[in-house]
TrEMBL record:
GO molecular function (one): DNA helicase activity
Gene: Brip1
InterPro entries listed in its UniProt record: DinG/Rad3-like, Helic_SF1/SF2_ATP-bd_DinG/Rad3, Helicase-like_DEXD_c2, P-loop_NTPase, RAD3-like_helicase_DEAD
Domain Helicase ATP-binding: 1-232
Protein name as annotated: FANCJ protein
Transmembrane segments: none
Compositional bias per record (Basic and acidic residues), positions renumbered to this chain: 12-26
Cellular-component GO terms for this entry: nucleus
Length: 236
């Protein structure tokens, strides 16, 4: 049967639940950790959620953190090959007098899942399910998944969402006191290396060197720009 420790509880109050209620009545907040489940690829998340559906924990509130490449449903932004993040930010900031209709409908998705949970018809889902529902409700799946993280007991995401400090900060992920599970953890070394690596083309290096030449020749912060120019020259 369902366990009594998390959100899939059948509703029967245990001794622990009673003590937690007493703590809240006294003003103390009991802390229930989230489970952050990291995988190497998005495809593996699909496999795990499919298995989760077959268990007694299928009704536990969950979410899947993913990039805009997998979740954006805006017809113009999603069709872009290279700069989806930048185009999304521009729409959110209202540049060029345009905004994102789908972002303003995020609450439709989060409320839909809340309604499912209230009627006990909530079950494990995949990112494709959320995107499909987002298209139906005209709501952004990317930001909806982030909102669902607040009430989720299990959060699925790729490794780098947990290992890369910049992504953790941007996604507002706090791992202190939480449970972290890393599937196929032997791949973490490669992921950590990628997180602190950056790729540039030769043409980008040459363009950068030209800009730095201009800075140095016009006496613009020479002490800062000369070492950078030297690095570009050595790399090219």
């Amino acid at each position: 049967g369902p366990c009594t420790e998390c959100s899939c509880s059948s509703g029967k109050e245990t001794d622990k639940n009673t003590s937690n209620t007493k703590k809240k009545e006294n003003g103390d907040q009991s802390f229930i950790p989230k489970i952050f489940f990291g995988t190497r690829t998005h495809k593996q998340i699909s496999q795990i959620t499919r298995e989760l559906k077959r268990t007694a924990y299928s009704s536990v509130p969950m979410t899947i953190l993913s990039s805009r490449d997998y979740t954006c449903i805006h017809p113009v932004v999603s069709s872009s090959v290279s700069n989806r993040n930048e185009m999304c930010v521009e729409l959110l900031e209202g540049k060029h007098g345009k905004s994102c209709l789908y972002y303003h409908g995020v609450h439709k998705l989060s409320e839909h899942h809340a309604l499912q949970s209230a009627h006990r018809i909530y079950h494990a889902w995949d990112i494709e399910d959320l995107v499909s529902l987002g298209k139906k409700l005209h709501a952004c799946a990317y930001f909806a998944a982030r909102e669902l993280m607040v009430g989720a007991d299990i959060v699925f995401c790729p490794y780098n969402y947990l290992l890369d400090p910049q992504i953790r900060e941007s996604m507002e992920i706090n791992l202190k006191g939480q449970v972290v599970i890393l599937d196929e953890a032997h791949n973490i070394e490669d992921c950590a290396r990628e997180s602190v690596s950056y790729s540039v083309t030769e043409s980008q290096l040459r363009a950068t060197r030209e800009e730095l030449d201009f800075m140095v020749n016009n006496n613009i912060r020479q002490k800062d720009h000369e070492p950078l120019r030297a690095v570009c020259c050595s790399l090219t």
